[in-house]
Amino acid sequence: MNINATLLGQTIMFAMFVWFCMKFVWTPIIAGLEQRKKHIADGLAEAERGKLDLELAGKKAAEILREAKDKAGATIAGGESRANQLIEEAKVQANLERERILSGAKAEVEQEVFRAKEQLRTQVTEIALAGAAKILGREIDAKAHSDLLDKLVTEI
Q1: What is the pTM of this model?
Q2: 100/111 Cα distance (integer angstroms)
Q3: Fewer CB within 10 Å: C terminus or N terminus of the chain?
Q4: Is 111 helix (H, G, I), strand (E, B) or coil?
Q5: Dihedrals φ, ψ of 138, to 5°?
Q6: What is the model's pLDDT at position 75?
């Protein structure tokens, strides 16, 4: 066999093999690689969008947290001011109640003093009548001398 003919035959066969591979094998492989390349690019783009979304969500969460802290601070301040207001109102109410109780107690004391004075006047009158009866040696009729006794009571 001639080496040139063999070499020529192998070259033709190789060329047909390359043509066959480029026509039937290479095209689907390239299409698959392009699809894979596109899929990877889309995935990277999605990852980048996800990263941006995550940053935005983090910023939004920080903003919401700051607003919540501000609201909580305002609520606490409002609660403290309301508590102080309630304490002041309770103090005012307690002072009013104390004044009412004191005035009631003073009125009651005055009534008791008046009753005690009346009782003492009555007892002094009885003692005076008893003393006068002993001095005069006879019994004094309280009904008969009621005008005189009333005058004596008012002087005491």
Answers
A1: 0.43
A2: 16
A3: N
A4: helix
A5: -140, 170
A6: 94
